Amino acid sequence: MYGDAAACLPSPASGRGESGSCTCLVKNFLRTCLGVLIGQNGLQRCETALSIFPVAIVAGAVFSLKVPGMPYIALLNVVSSIVIGGLIALAFSLPNASIFVLAAFFGLTHGYANGTAIEGTIKAFPFISGVAVAAFFAMAYGVGAADFLLRRKASWLPIAIRVAGSWTAAIGLLVLSVTHKALLN
């Protein structure tokens, strides 16, 4: 799941920050986990968050083109796995404002990280548009999966989703502990 984490760490060669693009498994996994968190909190409240996240991705990517080299973006993205996984594991209902802030903040940081991959012959508009569409679908997949599973009458499914959230947080802690030096540079 985090096998390509090294591809998402800062690249000293580019000097622009986090390498890797929307194809990075870690980023798509976290987008799906954010969708699971939102779906876990109720399908009725997810429409706004589903629109906020891709817009924030675009804003973050455009910002990275204007203000390159912001420190600690990779660190924030690893910490986001701990936060999102922990919130899934806790499984309590979040207020709408909290869901929207999470979607906006993580959209901005993940968008910024993706925007740093725009170099050379990569055209910004199609790249950023593709990242936003991929982010929307990854998040929508998580929302749909959580909603589908939580509507089933099996009593073990909510527990399984919470366990998956705790694993996400634990893996995030593991990645943080192994890569903290690279993330802090």
Q: Topology, please?
A:
Elements lengths: L24 H16 L5 H21 L6 H18 L5 H20 L8 H28 L4 H29 L1
Helix pairs in contact: 1-3, 1-5, 2-4, 2-5, 3-4, 3-6
Descriptive account of the structure:
With 185 residues, the protein is mainly alpha-helical. It has one domain (29-184). It is built from 6 helices and no strands. The protein has helices spanning 25-40, 46-66, 73-90, 96-115, 124-151, 156-184. The longest helix has 29 residues, at 156-184.
In total, how many domains does the architecture comprise?
1
Alpha-carbon distance between the two ends: 24 Å
In terms of DSSP E residues, the strand content is under 5%
Assembly form of the protein: single chain
Uncertain regions spanning at least 5 consecutive residues: 1-23
Q: What structural class do helix, strand and pairing data support? A: mainly alpha
Our Rg estimate from Cα atoms comes to: 16 Å
- Describe the main β-sheet briefly: none
- Shape category: globular
Average pLDDT value? 84
The ordered string of helix (H) and strand (E) elements is HHHHHH
Question: Tally of extended strands?
Answer: 0
Number of helices: 6
Helix content: over 70%
Summarize this, please?
The chain has about 180 residues and is an all-alpha fold. It has helices at about 25-40, 45-65, 75-90, 95-115, 125-150, 155-185.
Features:
single chain; mainly alpha; 6 helices; 185 residues; globular
